[in-house]
Amino acid sequence: MYQVKTYNAIAPAGLAQFTNDYQLNESDQPDAYLIRSVDLHQEALPQSLKVIARAGAGVNNIPLGVATANGTAVFNTPGSNANAVKELVIGLLIVASRNLMAAANYSAQHTEADVSQRTEHDKTQFNGTELLGKTLAVIGLGHVGSLVANAALNLGMNVIGYDPYLSADAAWNIAKQVQRASSIEMAVKHADYVTVHVPKNEDTLNLLGAKEIAAMPENAQLFNYARGGIVDNTAVLAAIKTGHIAHYYTDFGEPQLANQAAVTVTPHIGGSTLEAEVNGATQAAQTIMTYLETGNVQYAINLPTLTVPFNAAYRFTVIHENVPNMVSQITQKLAAANLNIATMANAAKAGTAYTIIDVDDLDHAQSQQLIDALNQIPAVARVRLLIHH
Length: 389
Known about the structure:
Layout: E1 2-6, H1 12-15, E2 22-24, E3 32-35, E4 51-54, H2 64-69, E5 73-75, H3 82-97, H4 100-109, H5 115-122, E6 135-139, H6 143-154, E7 158-162, H7 168-171, E8 179-180, H8 184-188, E9 193-196, H9 210-214, E10 220-224, H10 233-241, E11 245-250, E12 263-265, H11 274-294, E13 314-321, H12 326-336, E14 343-349, E15 352-359, H13 364-375, E16 380-387
Parallel strand pairs: 1-2, 1-3, 3-4, 4-5, 6-7, 6-9, 7-8, 9-10, 10-11, 11-12
Antiparallel strand pairs: 13-15, 13-16, 14-15
């Protein structure tokens, strides 16, 4: 029986994915965490914890180094809220182009008897523009960016994309009409609107700074519905002050953005839809079950992708440091136990490696001794033995 501990409110449809082999919130030594926004940085991860799955995209609330050292795989749910973010960005593009915020505020402040005549007289100050024929620069063409780019094309916009890390699989999801730029500066050079959709990491911190903003045309409008810190807010405010940026829309508030007439901050609602919560919880639950039952890894944050059909009777999985001679040390332990290897696979991601070894015959009396022997290898973080059912 596998034990799962949940944090936050997890959509019931996701929890319903778990089979009878799983118990929820019944043990202080869980095999898995299913979380959303809880901050785990101050938590002591139990040694029993084999996997953390976040029902969402960002993993800033998870101590990745601590998890890896504990032999705990960390997964997110890429794409689960992509449509929600896309729809919000497209909606805000329309809001921005038609000055809907200012127009609604005006109407709310003028409710006197002659409001109809007054608004008819004043409404020209809210004249907007149409998105048809305008240019949108999309920085990052992954799950969300590709959807935004395709939707903008359907609205008749010209779309220019920039993504130096675009995978072959992701490229298939992007309409051929999306133009590709070789740099951010080239992507934003003629853009009426700029939207950013990249993950937050060391390479993307302040990705759009003073230089990139200066490359945008006068009166461009900027959207950040990716992560806080990807856009340099100080540079944006400076550009707004000079009139270079007409308006900044973001899902990530900071004190310096408060009470700025040309800044609209939404309360981190990009992926907050009922559908996205169900998608994330469902995907996270399925990820937990796949990893615990087969050891296969796909789209993990701290482990390499490694999927091997589980056809043998038994499977050993080993999380270890990516250092020389590890595979031979592991196989030597199996050879000493007189085991023949049916299938073996190994992959690495940065400083962490992952090895899967399948065997057909195993003496149950010696299995724990073998696990202990593998765990004694200094660079090993976790060894698991899985039985094929």
